Amino acid sequence: MLEVLIFIYQNYWDKHDALAFEESDETIMAYELSQAGFNHQDILHAVDWVKDLRRSVAQPQYLQDVQAIRIFCDAERDKINDESLNFLSLLHRSDIITAYERDLIIDRAMVLAQPQLTMEDIRWITMMVLWDETRKQDYLFVEDALFNPHGLTIQ
After folding, report:
1. Cβ-based neighbours of 67, under 8 Å, separated by 6 or more
2. DSSP-assigned letters across all residues of 81-150
3. How far apart are CA 72 and CA 78, in angstroms?
4. Which helix (H) or strand (E) holds 5?
5. Cα distance between residue 152 and residue 98, in whole Å
6. Residue 121, number of CB atoms within 10 A of its CB
């Protein structure tokens, strides 16, 4: 299903406000994804994933106590490797993502059917969560981290 989400991201989020899709847009998108050869069930799950992301982004964000520590549960550690969890922690400590966005990224990762996710998968999910004009700079940082052949470097 992640391949479908990446296709949606590459072909729709760049051209439209991802948070403004209406029901008719989703129907057209589902048809086009079907024509591109994606599995019907994967398409349905991906569209639901995007809807859930939109609902979550629209929710008021909670504020985290600066002294709070995020402990990852066993299921999260089993599905998301240490490198990816460290990446999310780095983004949070660097104030690139909020605690709410970090938890939203983890939530969106956990609902994917894949038993394990790679660093590249988590970077894609992070970009999808951050895709919003008001977060353009943060989005570009994560995009650079995803496509930079030398990996993420902070100076």
Report:
1. none
2. -HHHHHHHHHHHHTTSS-HHHHHHHHHHHHTSS-SSB-HHHHHHHHHHHH-SGGGHHHHHHHHHHHH-TT
3. 10
4. helix 2-8
5. 19
6. 20
Q: What is the DSSP string of 17-75?
A: -GGG--HHHHHHHHHHHHHTT--HHHHHHHHHHHHHHHHHHHSPPPPPPTT--PPPPHH
Cα separation, 25 vs 31, in Å, equals: 10
- Look at residue 133 in the predicted model and tell me its pLDDT: 45
To which residue do tokens 């030398």 refer? 150
- With a cut of 50, which residues of the chain have pLDDT below it? 18-19, 133, 155
- In this predicted model, what pLDDT tens digit does every residue of 38-82 receive, in sequence order? 999 999 999 899 888 888 887 877 777 778 888 999 999 999 999
Asked whether 3 and 45 are in contact (CB, 8 A), the reply is no
